[in-house]
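Lesson 9: reading folded outputs for more than one chain in a single document. The general rule is that every protein is listed as its sequence immediately followed by its structure tokens, and records are never interleaved. Here is the first one.
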Amino acid sequence: MKLYTSPGACSLADHIALQWTGAPFEAQIVSRADRKQPDFLKLNPAGAVPVLQVGDWVLTQNAAILNYLADKFPAANLAGDGTPEGRAEVNRWLSFVNADMHPAFHPMFGSTAALGEEADGKAKEQAKQKLRGYFERADAQLAGKDWLTGSRSVADPYLFVVTQWAKKVGVDLSGLDHLARFDAHMAADAGVQAAMKAEGLL
């Protein structure tokens, strides 16, 4: 298996999950410029990470890759408690991070810059307020838990990644003590540290 990842991008979640599986894999670090090259565009015409290559088979889209890893390596216990309800809970929170939280960061990453300075600033502030609400929901879910669904799953590294983004762009996370505890717990994890070190983030 070969994971194409860019430092600190959402692909870090897949990198962490791969570390947790204990399976052998190669992490190929690619820059924004690398992702525009013809060889990479053959793998993913969107020019985005993550990309997971397994032999001749190529899989894109973060949620799809994380679900694949959870199903491919059941011994790693990254898909819930083994019940359909447990699996659905993992997908509920994975979907929450992937479909709600992640897109809400787009204004901070330049998607509204063309609107002009004033409109761009307003879009960023609105995004921060929306993200605060999302992180409050995650914080409430983490009350009394070390992991989003009660046991370690593929939803956890994705939440960890967007939490790092939030700290970087100035989203107000004050008072979210359960989230802070989760963040510290993840940062101390050996698999998380190995992935971050490989991406030059430590």
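And here is the second record, again sequence then tokens.
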Amino acid sequence: MPFEIPEDLHPDILGFAWLLGQWHGNGRGDYPTIEAFSFEQDIAFAHDGRPFLHYFSQTWITDESGERIRPGALETGFLRPGGPIDKAKGPVELLLTHPTGFVEIYFGEIDGPRLTLQTDAVVRTPTAKEYTAGQRMYGLVEGDLMYAYDMAAQGQSMQSHLWGQLKRV
């Protein structure tokens, strides 16, 4: 699908332009404390002319044939430059909120069509499950949004948890 950089995109986030839009696809999840699963996902990266992107992700757990079984994870937040972005390379910040009782602050780097992040802080409500750290990587590969998410939770060390491939819609 052709993509055009919006005329009103703030110049400080031109390096994030490749993320803009609606994405849809599928992924897999696994972790030592749960059964492996498949999911369907919608992601949106939007802007309003200011120097950040609004991020929203919604998932549905799917069965072996790809049919939705039930709602999955939701998360929303903001992707911001963490300093000067020069030629699509530089520091970034990601702030995320989850309805399961977590707030995360990530620091990382954008390098062309690749974004790598790790948590600096995770804050949990008293009712949230134990979760201590995360790492995320997003990349544009042959026009698709690919990502991987590693986490440390439930007494486990940092390890692979989710991965997915989404197409621009």
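What the second record shows: The mean pLDDT is 96.
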